[in-house]
Amino acid sequence: MKSDSYKRYLPFGHKLMITYCVFIMIPVLLAGYVANAILVRSIEERTKESSIGTLKQMKDNISYRMQDIVRVSELIYYDTTLTEYLRNNEAGWVSYFTTSKYLVPRLQTLLEAVNSHIWISVYLDNEEIHEVYNRQLTDPLDGGNSAFDIYHTERIFNKSWYTSFPQEYFGQTLEWAQIDEDKTFGHISLLRRIVDASKLFKVDEIGFMRIRIRLEDLFESVDSSKIGEGSMIYLLDESDRLISASGPIDRSSGQTLSVARKAGHIIIEEKVEPLNWRIVALIPSDITQSAAQTIRMWTVAACFIASIVFAAVGLFISRYFARKVSKIVYVLDSFQEGDFSKRIQFKGRDEFTRISVALNDMGQNIGSLIREVYMTNIQKKEAELESLQAQINPHFLYNTLSSISRLARFGEVEKLHRMVLDLAKFYRLSLNEGRTIIPIRNEIEQVEAYVNIQKTKFGDGMMVYYDIDPVIHDFLTIKLILQPFVENVLEHGLYGDHINLRIVGKLEDGTVVFKIIDDGVGMSAETIRQLFDPAESLNVGYGIRNVHQRIRLHFGGQYGVKIVSKPGFGTAVVIRIPAEAAVEQEAM
């Protein structure tokens, strides 16, 4: 029988799988986590770098458009021919020629040369040149057309942007600003003087130019969709006032950068140098989160697939070795239960093969030793049984012959004849061709023959009742297990000249139970103890202990004889043997 501790142990395959998971699966999952973190960080950095590059392209495009306007102003600023015309204050034909033949065509040429729609306003100190101006009351650039005006300088003498214009440094002084109605129309103006540099070390102002361009044209490249959905781009002046914006911005609510700035947004800035303005891009975290989520999903999928693959490999490996260990454990369990016939065979040349060879050799050697010891014990047991049997037969024969002698002495020939016949029947059944194991049917006939012998002796003073279940007749028993107890009743239990005896045979839960019950003198507990004591039973109840020993020797320690008795009330003997059928015995 296995101990409960063996039932609760953790199988080798489970231990191997747990170890595999700890040292393989956990590093895989950890590597997946680290890879995911690195990839997410890489995506964020790449998104930021890409957005910086896109924003820089926007800034460069704005700078290019502004430089294009500056180049237009330089075509006027460095035009020495125009300077000569504007220095001539003659009226009449000269001023007409200057205006119609040079200044106006020159301005028209500039309008055609520039890539953007612009509005050039020229303010001249030469009052002999007539003013030419656009007579529209609305924004002339609103329809997408370029335009020019020619005014006298006196129109701007009181303008703050003119009076505060910086000191002139030849070729360097210019300014971008939103003046007059620029904010209303969404324009920005390039302001620059028209100078006469013919005098050495002196630059004289002979006019002023204002070139206007729409902010939408200047900042046409500023498009938040180029960065990503949900992104916002703000164009801020030097005072952080919102000039223009692109993206999901609610202009009606007066939303500014401070309102639109949200936690988690990536903020990128680029400075538009000529204007001292800034382009600020707010990239929502959703853009990177979406990519990060995709990477995370792929990472989880990769880790999951890798885990499945590694788990399958681990399961295969653990089951491969667990099967070998299970076979070894199975053989060891068989050895523990006494079956040394099991063998295992492993292919290959590894430790398991060496273990299997060692176990097979051990099983064979132990099996041989056990068979040898078993045969020795069987021979010893048979010798003891024969010795005990040999001790019972002479004892019974001696008592019977004494009874026959007494009958002969008194001349009771009929009784003597009947006793001799019963004695012959008893010994015929007892000898049973030398077999120690006999059917219960024969054992019952033996005890009946003995009872008949004793009834010849005691006559009506002895009453015997049989209660034998026929179902037990074909079961086996060792011979002479009932007769010694009947004999013991007649020798020691007889009280007066009359005794009643009952012999019972039943089948109870796979066990054959015999009971021999008498109403004799009974016996004390001390006497019963002495009957089964190896030292004291030499002189008391030898036949009873002999039967008990033979039953236990043949069938096992759980079977044998039990006596219940009380002085003056009689004795009950209970004999238990296993219910073994004749066929089973022969198979053994």
Topology:
Elements: H1 4-7, H2 12-77, H3 80-87, H4 93-113, E1 118-124, E2 147-152, H5 160-163, E3 175-177, H6 182-185, E4 187-196, E5 204-214, H7 215-218, E6 232-236, E7 242-246, H8 257-260, E8 266-272, E9 277-283, H9 285-336, H10 351-410, H11 413-431, E10 437-439, H12 440-458, E11 462-468, E12 476-478, H13 483-493, E13 499-508, E14 511-518, H14 525-532, H15 542-555, E15 560-566, E16 570-578, H16 582-587
Parallel strand pairs: 1-2, 11-13
Antiparallel strand pairs: 1-5, 3-4, 4-5, 6-7, 6-9, 8-9, 10-12, 13-14, 14-16, 15-16
Helix pairs in contact: 2-9, 9-10, 10-11, 10-15, 11-12
How many helical elements? 16
In the sheet with the most strands, the strands line up as 2-1-5-4-3
Strand content: 15-25%
Assign an overall shape.
Answer: rod-shaped
Q: What is the structural class?
A: alpha+beta
Main sheet overview: 5 strands, mixed
What percent of residues adopt helix (DSSP H or I)? Answer: 40-55%
Number of strands: 16
Keywords: ATP-binding, Cell membrane, Kinase, Membrane, Nucleotide-binding, Phosphoprotein, Transferase, Transmembrane, Transmembrane helix, Two-component regulatory system
EC number: 2.7.13.3
GO molecular function: protein histidine kinase activity
Membrane topology: Multi-pass membrane protein
